[in-house]
Amino acid sequence: MLHQIEASHFQPLVGATCALALPDGRELTVLVERVDLKPLSQMPGSRMPFAVAMTAPGGSDFVHGPCALDLPGPGRVEGLFVSRVPALGRDEHAAYFQVVFN
C-alpha cells in the first residue's frame, strides 16, 4: 500500500494535528507542518518523491520506527517509517519527525 501513497494524501492534514500510532502501541499527537515535493529526485515513470514534516509540540522519547496514521482517502496506513530530525534552532522541548517517500 505504501507505494500508492502520494503527497496529495497528506496535503489536507497540513496545519492539523493527528494521532501517530507508535510501534509500542502508544499514540503521539503530531502537527503536520508541511509536505515537501522532491522533483529532482524523481525517476522516470515513478511517483513524485516527497517528505512529510511533523512536530510533537509536547516532545517525545520516540526516535524512529514503523508507525501508522489515518489519511484522508486511503484510511489507515501502516508501516510508515518515521524518523526523528534535530531541532536545529527550533523549540528544544518539541520533537520533530519526518516521513520520506521516494
Task: Describe this structure as you would to a colleague.
The chain has 102 residues and is mainly beta. A six-stranded antiparallel β-sheet has the order 1-2-3-6-5-4. Strand 1 and strand 2 form a beta hairpin. It is globular and about 40 Å long. The mean pLDDT is 95.
Question: Secondary structure elements and their pairing?
Answer:
Layout: H1 7-10, E1 17-21, E2 27-37, E3 50-56, E4 64-71, E5 75-85, E6 95-101
Antiparallel strand pairs: 1-2, 2-3, 3-6, 4-5, 5-6
Quick gist of this model?
The protein is mainly β and 102 residues long. The protein is built from one helix and six strands; from the N terminus they run αββββββ.
List descriptors.
102 residues, globular, 4% helix, 6 strands, mainly beta, six-stranded antiparallel β-sheet
